[in-house]
## 1
Amino acid sequence: MNAIIIAAGSGKRISNDVKNIPKSMVRVNGQPIIEYQLSVLNKAGINEIYVITGPHSKKFNIKNVTYVKDEKYEKHDILGSLMEAKIFFGKDTLILYSDIIFDSKIIKKILNSKDDISIAVDMNWEQNYEGRTKHLKSEAENVELNNEQIIRVKKNIKNINNNVGEFLGIIKFANKGSELFVKKYEELLKNNNGLFHEAQSFGKAYVTDMIQELIDSNIKIKPILISGKWCEIDTMQDLKNAEKIFFPNHVY
């Protein structure tokens, strides 16, 4: 089992003070976000960890990880950054956003999934947006379910039937999952022009755009319905909220 953390982005939306450092190196109660992630991953027995870096790669000082520098950072978005590390995709691989903190309960549930491709989904997500005025609910990466199957992944899906959750930013590949993902990506790289789901182009696609493409290609993406403590840190308001929940050296 290995893990790949997509950490090419900066903290510019949080504040000007951290706009020139990787978002994953922003400190929560004195400890970088990525160190919270590594602590939980290591506790789960995952020690082979790859970190995809961008323009501020020299600002990373984390040991016991392998860095993959995204030299094409300005030419693509998060999906393109992820695929810079595709040679490390294996039969058991976790893909993680770098701006989330989560507890061990969540990772344990994710690791139990044996499906080819599965994603972590929080069905109680709306409570996380109460009082969250700088990152609105309409910006959430939503997941719509039908009979426990994912049928749609995009922002701002109306939760009319209580069948909509939020994608945490964690994907689990097992068995043929990574092979399916890479094969479809390389097909699209050769043949896709123009708009790509919610992105202006395939080059500027998000991971969620790729997930939707797989669904549309009849490749099953299974939801892992999680419960536990987690938060996304995208704004200063999010950072202050995270500091009420997560502390260094605590066991999560």
## 2
Amino acid sequence: MDNKDKEKLEKFLNANNLMTLATANPKPWVATVYYAFDKGFNLYFVSSPNSKHSHDIEKNKNVAIAIYDSHTKNSESKTGLQLQGVASRIKGWDMTTKMLKIWHKSAPGMEDIVNIKNMKAKVISSRVYKITPTIIKFFNQDLYGEEGYRVFKL
């Protein structure tokens, strides 16, 4: 992935904040979650360990993601992302604190509820999860022309 691809992908990820997360155990399931990302294009989301998708991840860490702008008209240039990756729950309070700061910047408004204090006090059961991408398919018709996408294996 060259610098131009990275810049466009970062811009796209910054312009959106929801992703569709697909899990399987053994049957498929999807959930919509707010995400944040880091420079390595790892994705982070917050969810209850009791949710269906979190249970699925405990049994099968392979996941798929779709991120797109649902307001894009059919006649407009398309941008979007499909991703395969490996999911895991973040362990340790220091790393959870660090990831929550990133997540709150991307999905603000829940800082008073979704925080380390409430997690430690068991006021909330939510935890931070990380998705490490193995394949990213980035759709960007403005950047890639008629073909419309590039596939990056990480």
